[in-house]
Design goal:
Strand content: 15-25%
Radius of gyration: 17 Å
Number of domains: 1
CATH superfamily: Alanine racemase
Strand order of the largest sheet: 7-6-5-4-3-2-1-8
Largest sheet: 8 strands, parallel
Bound molecules: pyridoxal-5'-phosphate
Shape: globular
CATH class: Alpha Beta
CATH topology: TIM Barrel
Structural class: alpha/beta
Number of helices: 8
Order of helices and strands: HEHEHEHEHEHEHEHE
Helix content: 40-55%
């Protein structure tokens, strides 16, 4: 894969995002997070060279390693995975741009305590398990609004920016759409929230049509090495 192949690949992907977002509104802006969890630092550099700035990792250790090794590039790192409590300090030290996987009040309180000790702050998204799947983390749709408010009230070092959700794991488009719509409806009711992170490689166009303004793209973003 040379730089031109990457560019052609990215242009096609951006064109699909453009079509989806304009079908919502010309004013609807969508941010792309390139999920680099299965990709090399070389591939990240190539995407950087053609204009991509935001990258996401789902393991704290990988975020630390890749962000350190690519320190000379002005990249924006998102942590999109689940955070174990024994990794909280590592994540704070890595200073991610946005932690998208805050998935319980309990975790928020533990994170708050550590942030306070370190005199740090972190921007976060509350993860919603909108399809109610046992394999996924996140708060339920029923509790989401309440927990969001509780975190805002009791965690001054956490700045909540909105919601993150993974679409339903289903072959039925209606079921996936329903999971996105449920998340977006909660998002709309949150005071001051401005990020609704939904949509991955297999379902980002549908997510955008349901209101997503941040898509997390792994396999679609990184072309397969020939
Ligand atoms: C891996 C991952 C993605 C990207 O998945 P693709 O299907 O490769 O686009 C997005 N969000 C989260 C939370 C992930 O773990």
């Amino acid at each position: 894969m040379n730089e031109i192949d990457y560019k052609i690949h990215l242009d096609k992907l951006i064109q699909r995002i453009e079509t989806a977002r304009i079908s919502v509104s010309e004013h609807h802006i969508v941010k792309i997070i390139a999920v680099s969890k299965y990709s090399t630092e070389e591939a990240i550099k190539r995407l950087y060279q053609i204009g991509q700035r935001a990258f996401g990792e789902n393991k704290v250790q990988d975020l630390v390693t890749k962000s350190q090794n690519l320190e000379e590039l002005p990249l924006e790192w998102h942590f999109i995975g689940n955070l174990q409590k024994n990794k909280i300090n590592h994540l704070i030290d890595a200073n991610p741009f946005l932690f998208q996987g805050l998935d319980s009040l309990d975790l928020a309180l533990a994170l708050q305590q550590r942030l306070e000790v370190k005199g740090a702050e972190m921007e976060c998204l509350l993860q919603v398990n909108s399809a109610n799947e046992a394999s996924k983390s996140g708060v339920s749709c029923e509790e989401a609004k309440d927990i969001y408010a509780q975190i805002k009230e009791s965690c001054p070092n956490i700045e909540l920016r909105g919601l993150m959700s993974i679409g339903a794991h289903s072959g039925d488009k209606k079921i996936i759409q329903n999971s996105f719509e449920k998340t977006f409806n909660i998002y709309k009711e949150l005071q001051g929230a401005d990020i609704c992170s939904m949509g991955m490689s297999g379902d980002f166009e549908l997510a955008i049509k349901c209101g997503s303004n941040m898509v997390r793209l792994g396999s679609a973003m990184f072309p397969k090495e020939a």
